[in-house]
Amino acid sequence: MYEDLKGKVVVITGAGTGLGKAMAERFGKEKAKVVLNYHSEKNDYKETIQTIEAAGGKAAALKGDVTKEEDIKKLLDFAVEKFGSIDIMINNAGMENEVPSEKLTLEDWNKVIDVNLTGVFLGSRDAIDYMLEHDIKGSIINMSSVHDRIPWPHFAHYAASKGGVKMLTETLALEYAPKGIRVNNISPGAIDTPINAEKFNDPKAKQEVIDLIPMGYIGRPEEIAACAVWLASTESSYVTGMTLYADGGMTKYPGFQAGKG
C-alpha cells in the first residue's frame, strides 16, 4: 500500500475493461479518487465504481473519445468538478487490429495512430497544462507495449504508435522535469485481458505466446496495475522518462534463454 496515494485524484482513460479496469480498482484499494473514462456502453464501469468504493476509494465515470480534444477537456473538467484536482493522469486507452502491411488502409492506419498516440498526446498535454497552472507536481503514466521495441509484422500501425508513445513520454519527461512533473511509460507484454481472450482460448496459440516469455506464463492485469501505483507514488519520486517493461522477460531475446545461438 502507498499511503501517499490516499485522496489523490487519478484520471484513467480506457478504464472500462482490461488493464484500465485493473488499474482503477488498484487505485481504489489505495483509497484514491478515480475518474474512469470509457468509450463503449458495453463496458461495465458501474461494477468497477462499486469495487473502488467498497475498497475505500471514490470514483466517477465519463464516456468519451480520447481522439477528440473536446472530450479530453470534458474529462479533465469533470475530474476537477467531482474531486477538485488532477494529480495523476494515466493514458491507457488503446486498440489494435491485424492487417498485412501491403493491405493496410490509410483509414486503419489513422484510426490506430489516433487512439494509441494522439490520444496519449492530448491526455498528457491537457493534464500537464492543468498541473502547471495549479503548481501540481503530478505524475503522467502512459501505456505502451513491448512492441515499442519488438517489431510485429501485420501490426505496423500498432508498433509505430507504441514507438511514438515511448519517445513522446521521454520528450515530455525531459521538458517538464524542472517543474516536478514526472512522465513515465509502462510497456506490458502478453497480458490476460479481453483483447487477448480469443487468442488465449486456443491452447496452441496460447502456448506459442508462452514460449516467448522466459518466466513461462501470461501476465495478469493486476501485475500491470502494481506497476502503475508504484510509478504514481512517491516511492518512485526520482524516476522520470522511464519505460518499465512488465513482460516476463519477453524483450530479452527468449530464444537464447537456454544458451542457444
TrEMBL record:
Root EC class: oxidoreductase
Gene Ontology molecular-function annotations: glucose 1-dehydrogenase [NAD(P)+] activity
EC assignment: 1.1.1.47
Catalyzed chemical reaction(s): D-glucose + NAD(+) = D-glucono-1,5-lactone + NADH + H(+); D-glucose + NADP(+) = D-glucono-1,5-lactone + NADPH + H(+)
Oxidoreductase in keyword set: yes
Domain of life: Bacteria
Gene3D superfamilies assigned: NAD(P)-binding Rossmann-like Domain
Alphabetically ordered keywords of this record: Oxidoreductase
Family: Belongs to the short-chain dehydrogenases/reductases (SDR) family.
Protein name in the entry: glucose 1-dehydrogenase [NAD(P)(+)]
Organism, as annotated: Peribacillus psychrosaccharolyticus (Bacillus psychrosaccharolyticus)
Lineage: Bacteria, Bacillati, Bacillota, Bacilli, Bacillales
